[in-house]
Amino acid sequence: MEINLVSDTVTKPTQEMLVQMFQAKVGDDVYKQDPTVIELEAKVADYFGMEAALFFPSGTMANQTAIKLHTQPGEQLIADKWAHVYNYEGGGVSFNSGVSCCLLDGNRGMITANQVAGAINDPEFYHSPLTSLVCVENTTNKGGGACYDFEEFRKIRKVCDTNNLKFHLDGARIWNALVVTKDDPKEYGKVFDTISVCLSKGLGAPIGSLLLSDKETIHRALRIRKILGGGMRQVGYLAAAGLYALEHNIDRLSEDHRRAKELGNVLQKLDWVAKVEPIETNILIFSVQPTINENGLIDQLKQKGISISSMGHGKLRIVTHLDYREVMHSYVMETLEKLIL
After folding, report:
1. 80, 179, 259, 303: which could form a disulfide with 106 (CB 3.0–4.6 Å)?
2. What average pLDDT does the segment 237-241 reach?
């Protein structure tokens, strides 16, 4: 039995999802003639109270398009030091948009309105880059799946309005956050200028993200997507997977959260574990004792059919997902309890 807990991106489409994909009605989406893509875009935009959406092959491309929409070369965005747009998008912020990042030392990847206000450069001081955008992430990846308090978003929005800044949400795992916080997704559309959401993580679709905004902004995003090479043809086969995921795979995310917390409870009792970070959703980050070789631990688990990932500096990550079934969960917990290091 192979159990992959490296990420929630490793899932395979279910048979039911595949049936819906192969039955999809398609057209040429570059000409905006794919009915299934149009349906998906309208559904997700409405879900978050936005006017329009655009389908992308990846969350990175959706985020990079948003940054390009909101900035000019030489300007600066504000984000947490652990932000995905800074750490895991190949330097696209500088390559694609020519902007720099002002990185804040937040709490588990989450920043506050006060921090944002203190990081904005004086727009009249031309020696410093012009601050033009704030990017936040919910849930936070490197922060161990932490969820923002929505009230903090409202406070950051006020700071952005006062200082003429745009506000972007990297909502790659927004579905996980919504299941935990029970926030109204339509409130997100009132707070953010743009939102990216991913279908290929917790929801189990094989590919796809969407960028949400007002109609005029999404029309401009269409041109940037083309420049970045993101135009796709009969992509309705993939959009159909997203529609299936939205209908069937949101509520079940609570199972992933439960299993992550149960794994955390097991790890907290083991003497070779130094610390388990707080667990809110499906990402579990823990540290091993200084005497433990983290790569050796990963290899031992791999020999037992369990794959997890290293974050460096003694930190390890486990991510639960819909392909991680209860029988696997029992086996992993038992294996961790019996592991001798």
Report:
1. 80
2. 98
Euclidean distance between CA atoms 76 and 84, whole angstroms: 16
pTM of this structure: 0.97
Q: Phi first, then psi: give them for residue 198, nearest 5 degrees.
A: -110, 140
Contact predicate 49/195, CB 8 Å: no
- In 3D, which of 173, 335, 318, 179 has the Cα closest to residue 259? 318
Whole-number Å distance between alpha carbons of 243 and 249:
10
Q: Counting beta carbons within 10 angstroms of the beta carbon of residue 182, is it exposed (0 to 12), middle (13 to 18) or buried (19 or more)?
A: exposed
**Residues 6+ positions from 87 with CB-CB distance below 8 Å:** 142
Does the pLDDT at position 245 exceed 90? yes
User: Residue 133: CA atoms inside 13 Å, Cβ hemisphere, count?
Assistant: 29
Other beta carbons less than 10 A from residue 18's beta carbon: 16
Q: What is d(CA 184, CA 4) in angstroms, rounded to the nearest whole number? A: 32
How high is the pLDDT of residue 275? 97
